[in-house]
Amino acid sequence: MNSRTDTFIIDPTDEGKRLDTFVASKIESLTRSYIQKLIEEGLITIDGASAKSGTRTRSGMVVEVKIPEPKPLTVDAQNIPLDIIFEDDSIIVINKPKNLVVHPAAGNWEGTLVNALLYHCRDSLSDINGVRRPGIVHRIDKDTTGLLVIAKSNEAHLSLSEQLKKHQIQRIYETIVDGRIEKDSGKISAPIGRHPINRKKMSVNVKNGKPAVTHFKVLERFKSHTYIQCELETGRTHQIRVHMSYIGHPITGDEVYGKKFNLADTDGQALHARFLKLKHPVSNEDMVFEAPLPDYFTALINRLRNIQAGL
Fold first, then answer.
1. Cβ(163)–Cβ(279) under 8 Å?
2. Burial class of residue 174 in the structure, from the number of CB atoms within 10 Å of its CB (0-12 exposed, 13-18 middle, 19+ buried)
3. Distance (Å, rounded) from C-alpha 67 to C-alpha 62?
4. 4-67 and 170-308, same CATH topology
5. What does the alpha-carbon distance between residue 23 and residue 63 come to, in Å, rounded to a whole number?
6. How large a percentage of the chain has pLDDT more than 70?
7. What residues does each domain of the chain span?
8. What distance separates the 2 farthest-apart alpha carbons in the chain?
9. Those residues with Cβ within 8 angstroms of residue 21's Cβ, 6 or more apart along the chain or in another chain
10. Exposed e or buried b for every residue in 256-293, given b needs 16+ CB within 10 A?
11. Where residue 71 falls among pLDDT bands split at 50, 70, 90?
């Protein structure tokens, strides 16, 4: 794809829209995240001046969108084993292990899921999200295990992104948290944004946060911990980790939002993406995937059960 520039004049029917929303409605081949990236880089302007994603449009404004030519791929394909749950010509569903970063970034240019996907899929990955995130529709943290769906075509990527946007992809996690939760179920609705002091962390941020909703259900209680299931209604960065810490029950082993756990080797937070439900981007068929609990997780449950039994 060559570089191109598109120009739009805001008419009264488009007045009052967010800039990123307006551009997304005019250029459907671009994802919202990519549009926001273009805005941050000053490639989308209003009346010749840089703007923000949330800038509201007014009638008569001139919006110019410069879409650069894709940069040559600089991420190397690496023969890293993948636990593939499902694969066809449109999508690939991966059960991600611990310590595997999803895509290259500062400090992790190699050994990522993207490196492995480039080796396994060759040229069959969507290129919508740029050279460092081919096929990546959503992410889970390095130390979180479980299910991820990857787009192998741009058509699939657009469909999955739209399903995520409309909260039509069901993502259910299982986790162990510190403390006993006495309620059998609950809903956490608290906005999440960048931590005001530590910019590497997220936090419940009423002033600048985005809406975030997590539903939880207790599966088993132990002496000083609780095994729960969490379903995401939204998909903010570190959402479950931040929300559980916010209500006083941080995820066991989460040294960023909780504390180090010494009774078993969790190697980071005990959080597993267990179930994933979506519509196939081509056939529109309902698909449900499950990733069994990894060994570290079952070992932790057994350890807590033994402690509960006084063993």
1. yes
2. buried
3. 16
4. no
5. 9
6. 97
7. 4-67, 84-165, 170-308
8. 74
9. 32
10. bbbeebeebebebbbbbbbbbebebbeeeeeeebebee
11. low
**Is residue 123 annotated as part of the catalytic site, yes or no?**
no
**Predicted pLDDT of residue 113:** 92
Q: Which residues contact 41 (CB under 8 A, 6 or more apart)?
A: none
- How far apart are the C-alpha atoms of 216 and 204, rounded to whole Å? 17
pLDDT score of 260: 81
Which class is 4-67 in CATH?
A: alpha beta
Can you tell me which residue has the tokens 């993207």?
114
Enter the DSSP assignment of 95: E
Mean pLDDT along residues 112-124 = 90
CA proximity to 111, closest of 94, 99, 122, 121:
99
SS (H, E, C) 269-302: CCEEEEEEEEECCCCCCEEEEECCCCHHHHHHHH
What pTM was estimated for this model as a whole? 0.76
One-letter amino acid identity for 217? K
Vertex 85: Cα angle to 29 and 272 (nearest 5): 90
On whether the CB atoms of residues 278 and 168 are closer than 8 A, the answer is yes
What pLDDT does residue 2 have? 66
Q: Which CATH architecture has domain 170-308?
A: 2-Layer Sandwich (3.30)
**Which one of the listed residues 141, 143, 178, 254 is annotated catalytic?**
141
Q: How far from 306 is each of 71, 227, 302, 303, CA to CA, in Å?
A: 54, 14, 6, 5
In the chain, the amino acid numbered 154 is N
Q: Which among 75, 67, 89 has a CA at the least distance from the CA of 7?
A: 67
Question: What's the pLDDT score for residue 129?
Answer: 76
84-165: CATH superfamily: Pseudouridine synthase (3.30.2350.10)
Report how far residue 207's alpha carbon sits from residue 189's, in angstroms, rounded to the nearest whole number. Answer: 14
